[in-house]
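Input record, target 12 of the design panel.
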């Protein structure tokens, strides 16, 4: 699944948070943009009823085309196999969203279908190919989960992978996706792990799914820290109250940043070596990659 692609970051650093806002609630758009989230997702899918979808497209397009953006603005369209998906894209593309969140792909073919649509729409608007990024939610169908290992090459515009537990629960008939203490049940741990591994194989960031709890901020931060430790680069949020806890978890600490800088300095001082010694430990290229990822997560330039 490895593929070469442009810088997958938005605004020079990885997105720690992406905040959903319903596409038919324009009075909330500015509040979402001012929430502190690293990106905002204007939703045309689950948060909007079918009879409100036309109104939502108009409101989202109007907002995208308004004044200069303070944060990247993404749009979640409807699934590629629905009659709404192409209508969603056609309605908003002229206002140039920063990216498209694609729900419920059944296979990699759905990613390529949307990629082809975007290529044609970009050309019609005079945009550069790949100007609009793509982030698929890759585990909302059981079929997609089972097929992730066979997805192969991804479109170059894919800026990361994320996963979903709520729709997957509905697809397999599960009554819940977490245990009473908040841990994911085994089928959802599998889906989460496969998303993380697929992102690693493709060379793109993995973003953790929503946490439906927005009152227990300590629990949100704890779970987000666990996700970061596993390898996730950020998380999708459903409420502005979650942003501070998510950022606290995903923002590298001063100690982590200093370690990463020292690792890069050690490798820069010995460019001919594949391994270096630091604080009594032998570090090799995987540690260099970890250091680069830490610095990328806080927007620092790579120096080695």
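The sequence produced for target 12 reads:
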């Amino acid at each position: 699944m490895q593929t070469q692609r442009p810088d997958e970051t938005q605004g020079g650093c990885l997105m720690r948070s992406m905040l959903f806002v319903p596409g038919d609630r324009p009075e909330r758009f500015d509040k979402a943009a001012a929430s502190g989230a690293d990106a905002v997702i204007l939703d045309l899918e689950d948060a909007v009823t079918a009879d409100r979808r036309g109104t939502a497209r108009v409101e989202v397009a109007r907002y995208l085309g308004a004044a200069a953006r303070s944060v990247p603005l993404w749009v979640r369209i409807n699934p590629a196999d629905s009659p709404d998906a192409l209508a969603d894209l056609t309605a908003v593309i002229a206002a140039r969203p920063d990216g498209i969140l694609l729900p419920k792909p059944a296979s990699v073919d759905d990613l390529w279908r949307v990629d082809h649509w975007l290529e044609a729409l970009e050309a019609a608007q005079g945009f550069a190919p790949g100007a609009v990024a793509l982030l698929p939610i890759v585990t909302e169908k059981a079929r997609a989960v089972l097929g992730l290992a066979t997805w192969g090459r991804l479109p170059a515009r894919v800026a990361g992978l994320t996963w979903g537990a709520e729709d997957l629960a509905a697809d397999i008939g599960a009554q819940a996706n977490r245990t009473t203490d908040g841990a994911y049940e085994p089928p959802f741990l599998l889906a989460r792990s496969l998303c993380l591994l697929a992102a690693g194989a493709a060379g793109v960031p993995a973003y953790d799914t929503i946490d439906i709890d927005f009152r227990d901020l300590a629990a949100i931060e704890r779970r987000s820290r666990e996700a970061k430790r596993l390898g996730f680069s950020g998380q999708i949020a459903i409420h502005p109250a979650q942003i501070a806890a998510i950022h606290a978890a995903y923002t590298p600490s001063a100690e982590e940043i200093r370690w990463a800088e020292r690792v890069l300095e050690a490798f820069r001082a010995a460019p001919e070596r594949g391994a270096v010694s630091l604080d009594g430990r032998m570090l090799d290229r995987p540690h260099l990659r970890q250091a680069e990822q830490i610095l990328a997560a806080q927007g620092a330039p790579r120096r080695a």
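The longest helix spans residues 108-125.
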